[in-house]
Each structure stands twice: as structure tokens, then as C-alpha cells.
Design goal:
By secondary structure, the protein is mostly helical. The protein is built from 17 helices and two strands. It has a two-stranded antiparallel ribbon. It is found in: Endomembrane system.
Length: 459
């Protein structure tokens, strides 16, 4: 008698439900994490601080993540991604709660402490845990598409925050506390989503193990344990990806973090124009990123796309470095509009390329550590670079913002050098990153068949 074949949920439409939950998780996290950039003026008026203090908030957020994503990756590989996700999600709830309390008491130090806890949970949840889960559910399938959709909804969260948080502030009588309560509600939704993700992933694993033969279970249990020495096996292309990631994301995110204030002080734009131009790269990314991810899965050529994205980022920096007379407001708006469109194309192209490269450069049992180390290096940059930018913007004026652009241009050049080296390294080492996504066969569990056979046996 022949039992019915069963296919792993990772090969069925259930994986799209899991991706939808991941996207909802990203939206909730990013609305909360991005609030210092979209509420910079409101924070300054509420707590009587300057733009340098806003940059310090981002440094405080990133500071624990210099080391935490690496150890978070090891923890994920050791105790499992589900347990780690719930542990680090609890830090998000604590952190946003402290931000609410800081807003109520007008205590900037509590706001700093809240950002610290948001940092303790945010990067591991957003980058390491969710990336490890997506790799698990989409490996050998639409991985670039999945990462592209995930990153799109990170930016959707940023757009929602940029458009709604200032409105909430005004609707409730210039109340920063109301904004923090709005963020806290989203963090609770995020926590609930993570519970559903964990339950779905656990059931999927149980279902797969039930169908495995004893030999397959034995092989699974005998996988080598994860330890820090696995890092020694990471090749040069992995570390080149790390340099590209920290430089590219730092240049883009620091520009965005200071963008609304720069649009106001350097380019003399209206509040409506500031919000629109801040959101523009995220709108472009949300529209284009999934399409690019699907396209990259089909054709590969990831190092070439990295080089193109780096050139786009450098081009936008060159446009911003142009000295322009902003007494003609429409001319300034047109310049910033062009630069932000190019930034949006960069981000839409770069994000679905860089993250799917990581599983291709590390062993299967070290993917948590692989994502974690890159997260640590990225956050080292996002801790140090905002401190430098904070010093540059100590006297906040049009000239200081131009100097900031020069500094970000230098970082962008480093990213481009790294991207070119990735291309040449891959050419001489098996072209792993140049290949399209390898389609894995459907995971089918087939039970033993009870059939009548001849009594005659040939040895």
C-alpha cells in the first residue's frame, strides 16, 4: 500500500503566509525605530536639545549592536531562531515603554535608555532572526524576491512613520507622548506577530520531522555544532560584502536620518516638501524592490548589480554636494527631488542584492552567525559615523550640512571599491554570486511501499 506524498510547507504557498507575517513584523519595528529622524524638530522642542543629540540617539541605538548581532547570530544557531526572536522582541517592548515614560516625564535620558533597549532587540530581530527565518523558508527558491519584499516593508514602516507621526503630534495638541503611545501600539502588534511566526515555524518543523526516515533524522541530529571558530572559515568575499554593507547603508541611512532637517535648513523647503522628499526613496523601493528581487533570482549577476547600485549612490552624493542658491526655491526642490529619486533606485537595487549574497558565502549551519557578523559591522559604522556627523553638525547651518555630504561621499567611495573587489573575487572563485538562484527539488517525504515481490532473490 502506497502512502500519499507530503511536501514541506517550505515548498508550498504557506511560505507566502510566513512572508506576509515577516512583512507585518518589519513595519511595526521600523515605525518605532525611525521616530528620531521623522520627529527631530519635535524632539528638539520637547526636550530642548539640538540636532547633534538626535544623531547621538542613533549612535545609542546602534552601539550595543556592534557586538550583539554577532552573539545574537551565535545564540540563534545555538538555541534556535524562534526562542531568540521572542527573547529579543521583549527588549523592543521594554524599550518603547521607556520611550513613552521619557515622553511623559520630558526626560531625555529615559529616551536614550529606551533607544538602547530598542537597539538591543531591534537589529537582532530585524536583521539576524528574520533573515535566518527567510533563508530557511525560501532557500533555493525565490530568496532574492523574499528579501526584496521584506526590505520593501521595512521602508513601508518608515513611510508610515514619516507621514503619520507628525500628524499624530499635531492632532493631540503637539504631544510627543501621543507619538510614543502610537509607536507602543505597533510594538505590541509586532510582538503578537512574532508569536504567530514562531508557532507556524514550529509546526512546520514538527511536520517535516514526522515524515523523515530514521536515517534522515540521524543525519539532522549529527550536524556539527555551531561555535565561534566557524568564523575562521568565512572567505574574503564575505568580509568584502560586510564593508560594502556598512559603507552603503551608513551613507544612505545617515543622509535620511538628517534629511528632513537638511531640507529645511540648507534648501529652505516647506514641511510638506520635506516629508515628501524624505519618503520618496522608500516609495520607490517599496514599488520596485520585489520586481528587482524576482529578476535577480532569475539571472544572478549580483556583483554587477552591486557595482551599479554603488555608482548610483555616489551620483546622488555628487548632486547633493553641488553648491546652489536656494533663493530660487523651485530649483532647490528639483535638485533634491532628482537626488532622492536616484537614492530610491539605489536602495531598491542594493537591498535585494546584498542580503541574499550572505547565505551563498557561508555554511548552512553558520547562517545566523553570518548575518550576525555583518549586522555587527554595520552597526559599528552606524554608531561611529553618526557621532562624526554629530560633530560636523554641531553648528547647524547650510555649510555644515554640505560638509556632512562630503563625509558621506568618502564613505560611498569605500563602498564602491569594495563592490568592485567583490566582482573580481567572484570571477576567480567559482562565480557563486554571478549565478541565478539554484532551484532545489521539492522536498517530498515518501513512505515505504508494501508491494508483493517474487520470492526469488538475486544477490
Amino acid at each position: 500500500m502506497k502512502q500519499q506524498k507530503q511536501i514541506s510547507w517550505h515548498r508550498t504557498n504557506v511560505r507566502w503566509i510566513f512572508l506576509a507575517l515577516t512583512c507585518l513584523f518589519q513595519v511595526g519595528c521600523c515605525i518605532c525605530i525611525d521616530f528620531p529622524s521623522v520627529l527631530a524638530s519635535q524632539i528638539q522642542s520637547t526636550f530642548n536639545v539640538g540636532q547633534k543629540d538626535i544623531n547621538y540617539l542613533f549612535s545609542i541605538y546602534s552601539m550595543p549592536n556592534i557586538v550583539l548581532p554577532f552573539f545574537g547570530g551565535i545564540i540563534i544557531d545555538k538555541i534556535g531562531v524562534r526562542s531568540a526572536l521572542l527573547i529579543f522582541c521583549s527588549f523592543l517592548v521594554i524599550g518603547q515603554g521607556l520611550c513613552v515614560k521619557g515622553a511623559q516625564d520630558q526626560a531625555f535620558n529615559l529616551l536614550k535608555l529606551g533607544m538602547l533597549f530598542l537597539g538591543l532587540g531591534g537589529e537582532v530581530c530585524l536583521s539576524v532572526a528574520q533573515s535566518a527565518l527567510l533563508t530557511k523558508w525560501f532557500l533555493g527558491q525565490e530568496m532574492s524576491l523574499a528579501f526584496g519584499v521584506q526590505i520593501t516593508f521595512i521602508r513601508v514602516g518608515s513611510v508610515i512613520g514619516a507621514n503619520w507621526l507628525p500628524k499624530v503630534y499635531i492632532w493631540y495638541g503637539n504631544s510627543f507622548t501621543a507619538c510614543m503611545m502610537f509607536c507602543f501600539a505597533f510594538i505590541l502588534i509586532t510582538m503578537f506577530t512574532s508569536f504567530i511566526q514562531c508557532l507556524l515555524d514550529k509546526r512546520s518543523d514538527e511536520r517535516d520531522r514526522e515524515q523523515m526516515s530514521q536515517q534522515e533524522l540521524s543525519q539532522l541530529d549529527q550536524q556539527p555544532p555551531v561555535n565561534c571558530s566557524d568564523v575562521k572559515e568565512f572567505k574574503l568575499n564575505y568580509y568584502l560584502l560586510s564593508i560594502s554593507c556598512v559603507c552603503s547603508y551608513s551613507a544612505f541611512l545617515i543622509l535620511q536620518s538628517n534629511g528632513i532637517r537638511m531640507f529645511k535648513i540648507r534648501y529652505h523647503l516647506t514641511l510638506t516638501q520635506q516629508t515628501f522628499l524624505y519618503s520618496l526613496p522608500y516609495f520607490i523601493s517599496a514599488t520596485v524592490t520585489p520586481i528587482i528581487g524576482y529578476f535577480i533570482d532569475k539571472i544572478g549577476k549580483r556583483p554587477i548589480f552591486l557595482i551599479v547600485s554603488g555608482i548610483l549612490l555616489l551620483l546622488s552624493t555628487i548632486i547633493y554636494s553641488k553648491d546652489i542658491d536656494c533663493s530660487i526655491q523651485d530649483e532647490c526642490f528639483s535638485l533634491v527631488f532628482l537626488a532622492q529619486i536616484i537614492n530610491g533606485i539605489f536602495f531598491a537595487l542594493y537591498a535585494p542584492v546584498i542580503w541574499p549574497c550572505i547565505p551563498l558565502c557561508v555554511n548552512a549551519n553558520s547562517q545566523g552567525a553570518g548575518f550576525g557578523i555583518i549586522g555587527s559591522i554595520q552597526n559599528a559604522g552606524l554608531t561611529i559615523f553618526p557621532l562624526i556627523v554629530g560633530r560636523i553638525l554641531f553648528d547647524e547651518n547650510a555649510i555644515s550640512y554640505q560638509h556632512m555630504i562630503y563625509f558621506l561621499g568618502f564613505i560611498t567611495i569605500l563602498a564602491n571599491i569594495s563592490n568592485i573587489n567583490i566582482y573580481f573575487y567572484d570571477i576567480y572563485h567559482d562565480n557563486k554570486l554571478m549565478r541565478p538562484t539554484t532551484k532545489l527539488p521539492e522536498y517530498e517525504i515518501v513512505a515505504e511501499q508494501e508491494e508483493q515481490t517474487d520470492t526469488t532473490r538475486v544477490d
